[in-house]
Amino acid sequence: MILKFEKLDEFFNEVDKALGEKVNFYVIGGAVMLYHDLKSATKDIDLVVASQKEFVATEKALKSAGFTTKLPSLEYKKFDLNQIFIKEDFRIDLFERTVCNGFILSEGMKKRARKVRELEHLTVSLCSTTDIFLFKTFTEREGDIADCVSLTQSAIDWDEMLDEINKQMKISGNKVWITYIGERMDLLLERGIRIPIMGKVDKLREEYFAEAEKRLAT
Predict the structure, then answer these.
(1) Torsion of CA 14, 20, 26, 27, to 10 degrees
(2) In 3D, which of 177, 168, 94, 96 has the Cα closest to residue 131?
(3) Which helix (H) or strand (E) segment is 165 a member of?
(4) pLDDT tens, N- to C-terminus, the chain (218 residues)
(5) Residue ranges matching CATH 3.30.460 in the chain
(6) What's the rounded Cα separation, in Å, for the pair 73 and 59?
(7) d(CA 147, CA 136)
(8) φ/ψ (deg, to 5) at 141
């Protein structure tokens, strides 16, 4: 269990020394919340790299640094989780560009990410709390709803989130996602969380169901 974001510097420095080329880590999940004091601890470090080349370089570096691999459990397979690496207190969930069955690390997400470490080979950027919130509306892990509640204590840009939802739906062509997002946001509304874009999310959800009914009728 990791209690302070600074504890990750040990990991970042170790990977940097083992890398032979430039790699940019985009951090998602609990580690970002830890950085913003929105979570007291995290057991996983969720990392996304933007290319296969960076994924292979990271995989080699982690193995060189003494990390061992573990196959994703059924709970995590639907996340498009490429590989899990474990060493002592560190569990690294590594993704190659795609998370949650096609949710892609977009150019908008890269621009919103905050660079927090720049080493010789490794650059570490934290995805925005807006994008972390959106990631967590796609998942059904225990604690994700509570994390979404915590994330609303930070600066969430709801307009950017709605724009990203629309872009992701176009990129993937998988509009069913809006139903997942809508269901999770419904749960948050039940907990008293104000979601300014809820009306527009409902409209997108209604449009998806209307299109689905037309397909079934033909």
Answers:
(1) -10
(2) 168
(3) helix 158-172
(4) 899 999 999 999 999 999 999 999 999 999 999 999 999 999 889 999 999 999 999 999 999 999 999 866 555 555 555 789 999 888 999 999 988 666 899 999 999 999 999 999 999 999 999 999 999 888 777 788 999 999 999 989 999 999 999 998 888 777 888 998 999 999 999 999 999 999 999 999 999 999 989 888 87
(5) 1-127
(6) 19
(7) 8
(8) -75, 150
Q: Which of 116, 125, 151 is nearest to 38 (CA)?
A: 151
Among the CATH numbers 3.20.20, 1.10.10, 2.40.160, 3.30.460, which is that of 1-127?
Answer: 3.30.460
Pairing mode of beta strands 90-96, 45-49: parallel
The SS3 call for residue 152 is coil
| Alpha helices (runs of H) in 49-143, residue ranges in sequence order | 52-64, 74-77, 107-112, 129-136
The contacts of residue 171 (CB under 8 Å, 6+ apart) are 104, 106
Tokens of 89: 């207190």
